[in-house]
Specification:
Number of strands: 45
Strand content: over 45%
Oligomer: single chain
Shape: elongated
Distance between the termini: 98 Å
């Protein structure tokens, strides 16, 4: 409102210097333009006894991108005497707000102008006062505010996509303080502000920006230097924020003593921050500098450095909101970090990170890293510099992948710009080692994090199955697990194995091929694969579970396997006796449990009277299959032995021999899983009939 009055006053002042009787004077101006303000449709009139009634109308006034229409100012006690022009009871009416009581005094003799706006409400009085004094060659002014409404300031905040606040903006709160100005013939030459805000609240229509009960102190000053045509402003500012809450999508901050101090330069092309310091309560101190290009307000250059940031608060308050809907959305971190970042000509040039006793854990227990100490000096060399890769020094005391513990690690990471490589990494896993070789990662053409590619190969030395199952919290198993890992690659959305994964377990081999995982780090990953297991020792396999003992060997095939959210939705599985000569015996408990898998109606083809006389039986072949579709398992048996009714699961052989037949071909998948869980439970006992 003050800027509007400064434009209005010259209009009616010029019209009143000669008014002494009872004239009726009217002045019309079509258009007034200045770098700060444009006005259209100006009309001013003086009427009444001794020209005591002043009325001014403005069709349109524009300040920056803010536009007011149909403004009216009237004064019923307008006086001109001895070089003094005064209005004690003026009213300024804006179409969008309530009328404002305005009074002013203008002295041509003393070269002063004093404007007051004072309103009263249930929250108390609100006072705005602008005092200006001028001479040659300088002028001075002061705006003092007592309990000023923050909503009035919000009316002048520029709006739009690249401006300070979105539109529309509503606000409340009080402002107290003073703003000093001085200038010369070239215009404004300096400004100094000392303001305090209390109870400040604001919001926008989108709900993405809001503040509540904010208090703070702002001290700033700026001085114009340079020529009149190309002025350069030197500025410095200090702001503190002891109380209040702000949500600025996606960040949320509570005022707890944060402070920002900075100094720099400003002209029509750039805003330069020469020396800035940001103090974040509970996090640490950050030094910053940079260049912002105007009028687009884009960052061209930036430098940021900090020595001792507290990661727990930094991650939860600042970083974590940016990880929503990413694989890192449920991370938590602790420890301390130092950082140095350099950004030049709108591109990242340097990022040095030092980590001290850091831990990073996934709240979904997918992974955890503890005791991380690292020095990571990432740089991108310019075309005019000798290009040399940099090496990171990363030590991890302990970590977990799922529930599997990993021993101490030293990661020899080589960084060549945005290309990252690890020639060889050995990871202690329980009593064995997982080796990764030729790991490489680089961004795709768009350069976004989700568009990165990586690949590696490696191998697993023998790991005790007993130790592994104990770590996973599953049924204990015997034997060892080892294998070779071919090239594994990731293209930003899919993990794919180029070749076959070969493992040795239960004295047999497991071949995993056509392996592909879609959205592996998302909330609902999908897996596709084919699995072939050859010559598995049934004695080792069944001895692991409370299933009953079976001697022999089997081949297992699981083809067209599909998992969604790590749960099976489709596959064609079969289990058949391996070819060759080996002992083939099956216990009574195993017979009963195999019979129960066939569903109601499955039976052991043996005279019931002999069951109690033998601990185990001979067999010549075992066969079972399951085709899973739409949650239903369609089961079958030994294909070479078709039966008129049912299907053959165990074909007898030797003395005594036993045959097991299944009659129920379709079983709900989760019912079948439930049966397996019951019969393999350590406390499960067979029931003999």
């Amino acid at each position: 409102m003050i800027k509007l009055l400064v434009i209005i006053l010259p209009v009616f002042l010029a019209a009143t210097f000669s008014a002494h009787a009872d004239p009726a004077i009217t002045l019309s101006v079509d258009d007034v333009r200045s770098p700060v303000l444009n006005a259209k449709g100006i009309q001013a009139s003086l009427t009444g006894p001794k020209a005591s009634l002043l009325e001014v109308q403005l069709g349109e006034v524009a300040v920056q991108r803010k536009v007011w229409r149909d403004l009216r100012f009237s004064c019923h006690k307008f006086q001109v005497a001895d070089g003094l022009i005064r209005c004690d009871e003026g009213v300024l009416r804006l179409a969008s707000s309530a009328p404002l009581p305005v009074s002013f005094r203008f002295s041509s003799r003393h070269k002063t102008l004093d404007i007051k706006i004072r309103t009263a409400s249930n929250e108390g009085s609100e006072d705005w006062r602008l005092s200006v004094q001028w001479g040659k060659p300088i002028w001075e002014g002061m705006l003092t505010i007592a309990n000023g409404g923050a909503a009035r300031i919000a009316e002048f905040v520029p709006i739009g996509e690249k401006e300070i606040l979105p539109t529309p903006v509503t606000g409340k709160g009080k402002i107290n303080g003073a703003i000093k100005l001085h200038g010369d013939a070239g215009g404004l030459a300096g400004i100094e502000a000392d303001l305090a805000v209390d109870g400040l609240s604001f919001s926008d229509a989108s709900g993405l920006h809001a503040g509540e009960d904010i208090s703070g102190q702002i001290n700033a000053k700026a001085q114009r230097e340079g020529s009149e045509k190309a002025p350069l402003w030197k500025w410095q500012a200090d702001a503190s924020w002891p109380r209040g809450e702000v949500f600025w999508q996606p960040l949320y901050f509570a005022g707890q003593g944060q402070r920002l101090s900075a100094s720099g330069e400003l002209n029509e092309n750039i805003i330069r921050i020469l020396d800035g310091k940001l103090v974040l309560s509970g996090i640490g101190e950050v030094d910053l500098s940079g260049v912002i290009e105007r009028p687009a307000n884009t960052v061209r250059d930036f430098d940021l450095s900090a020595d001792n940031l507290e990661l727990s608060m930094l991650f939860s308050r600042v970083l974590k909101p940016f990880f929503v809907n990413t694989p890192f959305a449920e991370l938590k971190a602790a420890g301390h970090a130092g950082i140095k970042w350099r950004y030049r000509n709108s591109a990242h040039e340097l990022l040095h990170i030092n980590l001290r006793d850091v831990s990073v854990e996934d709240e979904r227990e997918r992974f955890a890293f503890r005791g991380v100490n690292a020095r990571i000096p990432w740089e991108v060399q310019g075309a005019d510099k000798i290009h040399e890769p940099t090496k990171a020094d990363i030590h991890i005391q302990g970590s977990e992948l799922g529930r599997i513990p990993i021993g101490q690690l030293h990661i020899p990471l080589v960084m060549d710009g945005l290309n990252f490589n690890i020639p060889r990494l050995t990871m202690p896993v329980l009593d064995g080692e997982l080796t990764l070789e030729n790991f490489s990662a680089s961004p795709q053409a768009d350069g976004k994090l989700q568009g990165w590619r990586w690949q590696f190969s490696g191998g697993l030395s023998p790991v005790s199955m007993q130790k592994l199952t104990e770590a996973l919290g599953t049924q204990p198993m015997q034997g060892t697990l080892s294998g070779e890992i071919p090239v594994v690659s990731y293209n930003g959305s899919t993990v794919e194995v180029q070749g076959a994964l070969l493992f040795k377990v239960f004295d047999g081999t497991v071949l995993l091929w056509n392996l592909k995982v879609l959205d592996p780090f998302g909330p609902a990953a999908s897996l596709m694969a084919d699995v072939d297991m050859r010559n598995l020792d049934l004695d080792l396999l069944t001895g692991t579970f409370s299933f009953g003992k079976i001697q022999g060997r089997v081949d297992v095939a699981v083809h067209d396997l599909e998992l969604f959210n790590w749960k099976p939705v489709k596959f064609d599985a079969s289990l058949m006796s391996s070819p060759g000569n080996y002992p083939r015996r099956i216990s009574q408990a195993a017979v009963q449990n195999i019979s129960s898998l066939g569903g109601f109606g499955a039976a052991a083809a043996i005279q019931r009277s002999f069951l109690h006389f033998f601990d185990d039986f001979g067999y010549s072949k075992i066969g079972w299959s399951c085709s899973l579709r739409n949650g239903t398992c369609r089961m079958g048996g030994i294909e070479s032995e078709p039966l008129q009714h049912g299907y053959l699961i165990v074909k007898g052989g030797g003395i005594p021999a036993i045959t097991v037949i299944g009659y129920n071909r379709e079983v709900d998948w989760w019912e079948l899983v439930s049966r397996l869980q019951r019969i393999t439970h350590p406390d499960a006992k067979p029931v003999f009939q």
